[in-house]
Amino acid sequence: MQVTIDGVQVDVEPGTTVLQAARAAGAAVPTLCFDERMAPFGACRVCLVGVAGPDGRADVVASCTTPCRADMVVDTCDPRARRVARVVVELVLSELPVTPAPHTELAAVARDLGVHEPRWSGEVHQPDHDTRHPYLAFQHELCISCGRCVRACDEVQGAFALTAVGRGFGANVVAGIDAGFRDSACVSCGACADTCPTDAITELSLLEIAGATEDDPRSRR
Amino acid sequence: MSSNLVQLARTHRQSHAPTAVELLSAAVRERGVLTDEDIRATAAATGLPEATVHGVATFYDDLLAPRGRRHVRVCTGTACFAATGGAHAEQIAAGLGLRAGECSDGGSLSLAETVCLGFCHSAPAIRDRDLVDAGPGAVERVLAGTARQAGEPAVRSLLAEPALTGAGDWSGLRRTLAGMTADELLAQVDAADLRGRGGAWFPAARKWSFARAQQDTCRYVVANGDEGDPGSYIDKHLMERSPALVLEGMALAGYCVGASEGVILVRSEYPQSRPVLEAAIAAARAEGLLGDDILGSGFAFDVHVVDGAGSYVVGEETALLACLHGLRGTVSARPPFPAERGLYGHPTLVHNIETLANVPLIAARGADAYRELSPQSPNAGSKLVCFNERFAQPGVVEVPFGLTVRELCEEVAGGLVGGRAIKAVQIGGPLGGILPASLLDTPFDSAPLAEQGCMVGHGSILAFDDRTDMRRLASHLLAFGAHESCGTCFPCRIGLQRAHEEFASREAVDRARLEALLETLEVASLCAHGSGMPAPIRSLLTHFPGELGLR
Questions:
Q1: For A25-42, what is the HEC assignment?
Q2: What's this model's pTM, rounded to 2 decimal places?
């Protein structure tokens, strides 16, 4: 079937998501919770796009979880979708106690969307470091609950060592029965660290291990 | 929802065995607090991974608060807020010498907050062990250790022939099984224009058609008894006083969509609902109205009950299914819709309790009779509404659509106690807009209410009297919204926290910043919780801007 992405007609297979179609058409749609290795999750809402509705007004939808319909007309630059996506990223920055490291996916998305200092200065996640595992470090305050690590552990590795915990603003991720990676079903595959968009979970290189302090596993960076 | 975890839940499922959520709830009830051993035992019993079960244990309110031998839960719902401004919760905490979430040394006494106990007709409500005391003197009685069970609400119908306030006589199912095909029943439900009474107003027949169109013939009917809306006690009333009507509606839905099993999720805040439903199920089985061969027709349908554990968002259909799987009650993106892939991955019809209770009349008397229940309205059928304790005559009332909100408030519910003036009413739950006194002549119908930023919703009509501080009301509603956010989508998870902070602080609310939050919640949230929470805040901004401390 055919869909129109930013004025360009593209052919897609049934079951294709709007995000897949948009990227195939060369449109740059930012995402935070999406990882093509896992089923779409629809949590971050940064991939919002406009879809022309029957009344002419564009509906704003999450492109990652919306299937293409025949003759759909998609505007990845819809002003409302972009404006709201920027606020979402601004909210994400507002929950972190520190600015995300420049090399992270979160920092890149914020740069792309032109989001800088958040307007909100309320509660932030408190520093909580788990350094019990020899190669995997978890800085819980950097977790934005995108669920990518939990889904990687479930869908890619099948270890089910990670879980979302809490709810609302207090949501986070832990390994095992909050016992850290070492005392969980973790098989040290590193899929969680590989997909993490904020460096909340990182794999330590030998250099870092040699220089890291107990409290700050990333002090060498 | 992780399809792998759903698969695990399905593989290890034994018929009617307790879910992981129920096993954890039982452990908390028995021992007061969950241990790692409880998590491991639950994981072993359910086949779920240990980390997954730990995630469940950190999600539900019932599993988080430690319990002493005497566990006191104070209701912080909106009807209780309207009654005391929150003073009752402070008095209980001070009197017991505990903060919410604390357990005394030695474990004799514990205190938690809960939303809501469904005794909105007699606020404030406090649950002392399994006894719910409510109304004037409840705080003093609980503190004196002399709590007594509060009375049930008055129930009446304005209809000549009540459709929803009777006990139910199974005549709709008898008539259907005696000679109506599933197609004919669907045509009646379609012609009746039955809409989802949980608040979404979705056409029931469309859901039924969708479920019937699936290739998978293992199908379920799920009744959503997670009536979490603070201020609502309509489903509570139906489950506890008209359970047969609900069961008959489920059986009819099952007949139509080809399901042989129904499940009712009952929120744990309603401790009396499950035993009444189970007694009604047993009675129906004994009469051949549920079971393997209903009334000799060859149609098989049975129902069992599953407990919730304290989460508002579990009332959303994908979160409800997650809870029934024993998982964290978080929302999943749709599609797939439950009618395609629901309970244990099979096509599932999820309906609110009141929606199901509407089906027997349609089956018994046909679509035309159903539509005639509201002759002065484009909406079909009747509606149960419930009034909070501020009204002179609170209770559950079956009404036709089309009366004005003023008629409902002043004539049906008798105005406010002591002749006080209504400042505003919130209709349909926490996601419903707030109608100021100046707009009470708005008809109680979906379209005119929508024009005022309001909705019929689930049908609660909650009055705030002239003493209500509207900034505190905004803060109260947003505290609820933030606490109940499941934490999945970013706008709701962070946005409701920030919106609450705006109103809870002593500083002026930054209007531009608030508008950005409200738009983001409305446009980008994954479910109706996040997208609906701005509605009452917008009402307050429109009608009471001078009271909100804006800049």
A1: CCCCCCCCCCCCCCCCCC
A2: 0.96
